[in-house]
Automatic annotation (TrEMBL):
<feature type="domain" description="Aspartate/ornithine carbamoyltransferase carbamoyl-P binding">
    <location>
        <begin position="3"/>
        <end position="139"/>
    </location>
</feature>
<dbReference type="InterPro" id="IPR006131">
    <property type="entry name" value="Asp_carbamoyltransf_Asp/Orn-bd"/>
</dbReference>
<keyword id="KW-0808">Transferase</keyword>
<dbReference type="InterPro" id="IPR036901">
    <property type="entry name" value="Asp/Orn_carbamoylTrfase_sf"/>
</dbReference>
<comment type="similarity">
    <text>Belongs to the aspartate/ornithine carbamoyltransferase superfamily. OTCase family.</text>
</comment>
<dbReference type="InterPro" id="IPR002292">
    <property type="entry name" value="Orn/put_carbamltrans"/>
</dbReference>
<dbReference type="InterPro" id="IPR006132">
    <property type="entry name" value="Asp/Orn_carbamoyltranf_P-bd"/>
</dbReference>
<feature type="domain" description="Aspartate/ornithine carbamoyltransferase Asp/Orn-binding">
    <location>
        <begin position="146"/>
        <end position="297"/>
    </location>
</feature>
<dbReference type="GO" id="GO:0042450">
    <property type="term" value="P:L-arginine biosynthetic process via ornithine"/>
</dbReference>
<dbReference type="InterPro" id="IPR006130">
    <property type="entry name" value="Asp/Orn_carbamoylTrfase"/>
</dbReference>
<dbReference type="GO" id="GO:0004585">
    <property type="term" value="F:ornithine carbamoyltransferase activity"/>
</dbReference>
<dbReference type="GO" id="GO:0016597">
    <property type="term" value="F:amino acid binding"/>
</dbReference>
<dbReference type="GO" id="GO:0019240">
    <property type="term" value="P:citrulline biosynthetic process"/>
</dbReference>
<dbReference type="Pfam" id="PF00185">
    <property type="entry name" value="OTCace"/>
</dbReference>
<dbReference type="Pfam" id="PF02729">
    <property type="entry name" value="OTCace_N"/>
</dbReference>
<protein>
    <recommendedName>
        <fullName>Ornithine carbamoyltransferase</fullName>
        <ecNumber>2.1.3.3</ecNumber>
    </recommendedName>
</protein>
Length: 305
């Protein structure tokens, strides 16, 4: 791995190694306290962030490294191209963590930089989130090949990353979206190809009547940052797909997942989000350990300490 731009560029063996390293680093943090001593990581963000920015900064600090935050909107654009920014940052920093509006910006940064670039969210995928999510499910259930996860709502960037991750680890994933909001067909096709090798089962439907029994239900906001949609139309189309107590009971789901921030009363009811079944804070916590494993792998080339 030279960069982490999308999980489509990661093999099943590489993802399993990242999960193993995440677990090891979480269980033995003191062993990695100086792992990135002398390393500097640039955090280049076009979008607002709570979990991504905080977890990367805290994680880098715990590994003995240094991070610097840059508002990408003030440096990329008319002032400088993404390529020029990437080339310059590579002169001073050991890696670039970028949260961007377009996946193409990540490729511009990576092509111009001889240092690793990590996708901290783009319009097409969110690999760091998906790795943390799979880590969370592994902690909850153990054998991921026995997990049945249901994604309900928008076929968005988080959904795409989760599709890729499920295929790589051999998990069962059911995607349920309103008509017109399905996951990208190319993403699904690529994942299906990987699933044929790993034993994963990935299905997509728009029918709530086809809901399978699930171990966990995952949803996300109906309005992604930078997305232009008619609010009244979206509210109408998504209303039947709200995650509530009835849906949790109908599917037999033990846990509820969300990448946050969540809108109580929209995609999920407060009763579910604030219940003991919600593992959203465990997901958020695991962002740090998943991302630290990514940094260790890219910056040191070591899978273990």
């Amino acid at each position: 791995m030279n960069d982490l731009l999308a999980l489509t560029e990661v093999s099943p063996q590489q993802l399993n190694a990242l999960l193993q390293l995440s677990t090891t680093m979480k269980q033995n943090p003191a062993e990695y306290a100086n792992a990135l001593t002398g390393k500097s990581i640039a955090m280049l963000f076009e979008k607002p962030s709570l979990r991504t920015r905080s977890s990367f900064a805290a994680g880098i600090n715990r590994l003995g490294g240094h991070s610097i935050y840059l508002d990408a909107n003030t440096v990329i654009g008319e002032r400088e191209t993404a390529a020029d920014v990437g080339a310059n940052l590579a002169c001073w920093h050991d890696a670039i963590v970028a949260r961007v509006f377009k996946q193409s910006t990540l490729h511009e940064l990576a092509n111009a930089s001889d240092k690793p670039v990590i996708n901290a969210l783009s319009d097409t995928c969110h690999p760091c989130q998906a790795i943390a999510d799979v880590l969370t499910l592994q902690e909850l259930f153990g054998d991921l090949s026995q997990v049945q996860l249901t994604w309900i709502g928008d076929g968005n960037n988080v959904c795409h990353a989760l599709i890729n991750a499920a295929a790589l680890v051999g998990m069962k994933l059911q995607i349920v979206t309103p008509k017109g909001y399905e996951a990208n067909t190319e993403v699904l096709a690529t994942a299906q190809g990987i699933a044929s090798q790993t034993g994963a089962q990935i299905t997509q439907t728009t029918s709530l009547d086809e809901l399978l029994p699930s171990d966990a239900i995952y949803t996300d906001t109906w309005f992604s940052m930078g997305q232009q949609r008619d609010e009244s139309q979206v509210m109408h189309d998504f209303a039947p797909y709200q995650v509530n107590c009835q849906l949790m009971q109908q599917t037999g789901a033990q846990y509820f997942m969300h990448c946050l921030p969540a809108q109580r009363g929209r995609e999920v009811t407060a009763e579910v989000l604030d219940s003991d079944q919600a593992v959203v804070l465990k997901q958020a916590e695991n962002r740090l350990f998943a991302q630290n494993a990514i940094l260790m792998t890219l910056l040191t080339g070591d899978q273990q300490s």
